[in-house]
Amino acid sequence: MAELVVLERDGGVATVTLNRPEKLNALTKPLWRDLGAAIRGLSSDESVRCVVLRGAGERSFSPGNDISEFRTERADKAMAIRYGQVMRDTLQALEQCPHPVVARIHGICVGGGLEIASLCDIRICGQSSRFGVPIKNLGLVMSYHELAPLVGLVGPGVAGEILLEGRIFDAQEALAKRLVTRVVPDDRVADEVGSTVQRIVEGAPLAARWHKAFIRRIQEPQPLSDAEHEVCFDCFDTEDFREGYDAFLAKRKPVFRGL
């Protein structure tokens, strides 16, 4: 059997692929579980500079959860709670991933697929991509853990519009709603993601991880402590900082080692 989640490495760049192309990469409980395991493994690997998350093929990122699985895995509340815990663990793994994560979106990005993409730091799609969360048609709701990233991206008003209407809309509307970072011609998605990843990995990896952590923390309601403010100056004691300014003064390209 083919792996449901394929992990490939090219130096510091890890590509994670949702691998059910025959089902447009529809999500199943085992796929959710394998995706979480892959992200947690990468999160603990300090040699990773950037993660690319995509669906297999170029027809679909993911249309969301596989409806055919509902009778066996989500037929009642108790079963749905167990299924939901697997989803929650994976979404939490994505949210807490210290490395930059870039979503490479081809085609359909709907429901659970959109939930996954919304937790990526940068989301790049093609002009023909389609987005939405039509779960009202199934009589379902998004749980708090699924909904929070969407509200964080688009705000409560737009999140309400997306859920209450359940429309499928195009890439330009997704861009206007801030669901995606960038829209490019369909045949340029791979190249644009590649260029984006290259810009990320050329930077200092410690700085990227700190920035991700700071952005996540500043959205929390608790006031920042003096110790947390002080962490912002830890970068001045790193070898990467010294390499950065030495390279700038010498007019050469820096080589960061994550130290």
Short synopsis of the structure:
With 259 residues, the chain is α/β, with parallel strands linked by helices. Helix content is 46%, strand content 16%. The protein has 2 domains: 5-201, 2-enoyl-CoA Hydratase, Chain A, domain 1, CATH 3.90.226; 205-250, Orthogonal Bundle (Lyase 2-enoyl-coa Hydratase, Chain  A, domain 2).
Distinctive features:
alpha/beta, globular, 2 domains, 259 residues, Lyase 2-enoyl-coa Hydratase, Chain  A, domain 2, 4-stranded mixed beta sheet, single chain, 2-enoyl-CoA Hydratase, Chain A, domain 1
Can you walk me through this structure?
The chain is an alpha/beta fold and 259 residues long. The chain has two domains: 5-201, 2-enoyl-CoA Hydratase, Chain A, domain 1, CATH 3.90.226; 205-250, Lyase 2-enoyl-coa Hydratase, Chain  A, domain 2 (Orthogonal Bundle). It has helices at 29-43, 70-73, 77-96, 112-118, 144-165, 171-176, 189-201, 205-218, 226-231, 239-250; strands spanning 5-10, 13-18, 50-55, 60-62, 101-105, 108-110, 122-126, 130-132, 169-170, 182-184. A six-stranded mixed β-sheet has the order 1-2-3-5-7-10, sandwiched between helices. α1 packs parallel to α3 (77-96) and α4 crosses α5. The chain is globular, with a radius of gyration of 19 Å. The relative contact order is 0.11.
